[in-house]
Design goal:
The protein has 440 residues and is mostly helical. Helices cover 22% and strands 0% of the residues. The protein has helices at 3-9, 64-68, 91-95, 129-133, 168-178, 184-187, 239-249, 286-295, 301-304, 334-343, 349-352, 388-391, 404-407, 411-417, 428-434.
């Protein structure tokens, strides 16, 4: 039965009962001391279900602050009413004594009467003790902050907190005697526990392995896996010292002369998924990757004579997505790209007799959007967007062009207009030499 039910079962009104077997002001003795209802309302149904002393209304609530002027906080809000309201005497009498009115002073007056200096209303755990300990030789951290004061200070109940030795062994001599994996006493580990242990736990999770940090798998294996037979000194600290068998069993490690500092490629969680470090390699890539070179067909490395210095185009992460370096190529572009030249129709390179020097218009990034260099601004202004064939009348020979055929000048008219121009000749090249931008 809940404390609240017990509380309100005690609130029986003097005029409530009218049954033959329960007289007015009567009380069920098994419920404990009676709490007088003399000042309570005569309407029992305000609290109780009609016809039953043992059940309160489901919607019943009692506002202790509003009804009595005293707020119930913390653990007091959950205490049974009879803990305070009983036949010891009026509640006001005991409340006037403060905490000591209800709670025994286990400190026997040694710590004064002001309990709230250390305790709150939620539980008996002292408040502020951790902060107070910061001013001593032994700050409370980790598990030490959670243990009761009396576990270390036997005189805590009567206010005696001085005279303790802060050495771990003072409190943990029994733990030392029980430590057999490894055997601390046999190894002579009888002092300075904090060299290996931390204050949160005695187990491996808190073990200070400062000479060889226990990361990855090293942090979860048993000590005996490395410290065979209880040997804790003279062990190797390099990977190869413990993992020589794995190195020898790994495909090609020994044959390829892989270094034995395993951490260059491997982590401490698993051997798989190693990140290959090329930094130690002195031989050319082709020594290991000849088969990759010979099978490459996009482009065909062997047929095109692609150099075997793979690092010109490839990185060390993967073969795909290589950045092609044209610097090694000495032959003309068309030797590799004749098919692209012949298949181009806008404009038709082959029909128009475009030169094979592809780099005159194209870059090594893409064929599209070639930048045609006309060598003079004749392709701008009024000449922009005219067909090549309108000026270049001889197919396949773009060095030959005409101005006079497009502009339809008559020779006699041009002769009169240029009669004072020194060296004038009615000729296309002469026109262009004087009017390279096509203007007057």
């Amino acid at each position: 039965m809940s404390p609240r039910t017990l509380l309100f079962l005690s609130l029986l009104a003097a005029g409530c009962s009218r049954s033959a077997d329960v007289p007015v002001n009567g009380w069920y003795a098994e419920r404990g001391p009676v709490v007088p209802h003399d000042t309570f309302p005569a309407d029992c149904t305000l609290c109780h279900k009609e016809g039953s002393w043992n059940q309160l209304r489901e919607d019943f609530s009692f506002d202790h602050l509003a009804e009595t002027g005293v707020a119930l906080e913390g653990a007091h809000a959950q205490a049974e009413c009879l803990r305070c309201h009983n036949d010891r005497g009026p509640v006001d009498l005991f409340a006037a004594r403060g905490c000591a009115g209800c709670h025994e002073d286990v400190h026997l007056g040694q710590l004064g009467q002001n309990c709230t200096d250390c305790h709150g209303q939620d539980d008996w755990r002292p408040r502020g003790a951790i902060a107070d300990h910061e001013r001593t030789r032994f700050p409370l951290v980790g598990a030490h902050a959670a243990v009761p004061c009396w576990r270390c200070h036997e005189g805590a109940p009567v206010g005696r907190f001085t005279g303790l030795d802060p050495d771990c062994i003072t409190c943990h001599s029994e733990d030392l005697a029980r430590a057999t994996e490894p055997n601390h006493l046999a190894q002579g580990w009888t002092s300075n526990c904090d060299r290996c242990h931390i204050s949160t736990t005695w187990g491996g999770a808190g073990f200070n392995h400062s000479t060889f940090p226990l990361t990855g798998k090293h942090g979860v294996i048993d000590c005996e896996a490395c410290h065979v037979g209880g040997q804790f000194t003279g062990l190797p600290t390099l990977c190869f010292g413990c993992h020589e068998a794995q190195y020898l069993a790994a495909a090609n490690h020994q044959a390829q002369g892989y270094p034995t500092d395993c951490e260059r490629c491997h982590g401490t969680w698993t051997w798989q998924g190693a990140r290959f470090d090329h930094g130690w390699i002195t031989q050319p890539c082709i020594d290991c990757h000849l088969s990759d070179y010979q099978s490459a067909n996009d482009p065909d490395h062997v047929a095109l004579g692609v150099p075997t210095t793979c690092e010109l185009c490839h990185g060390t992460q993967h073969w795909q997505g290589a950045g092609f370096d044209h610097s090694w190529i000495s032959q003309p572009c068309v030797d590799c790209h004749l098919a692209e030249y012949q298949g181009t129709t806008d404009p038709d390179h082959e029909a128009l007799g475009f030169p094979f020097e592809c780099e005159g218009c194209h870059s090594t990034t893409t064929w599209y959007g070639g930048s045609f260099d006309h060598d003079f601004p004749i392709d701008s202004g009024k000449h922009k967007d005219i067909s090549c064939s309108e000026c270049h009348l001889v197919p396949g020979n773009f060095s030959v062009f005409t101005c006079t055929d497009c502009h339809a000048h008559t020779k006699s008219k041009m002769d009169d207009k240029h009669d004072e121009v020194n060296g004038y000749v009615y000729d296309t090249m002469a026109c262009y030499n004087c009017h390279p931008d096509g203007k007057e």
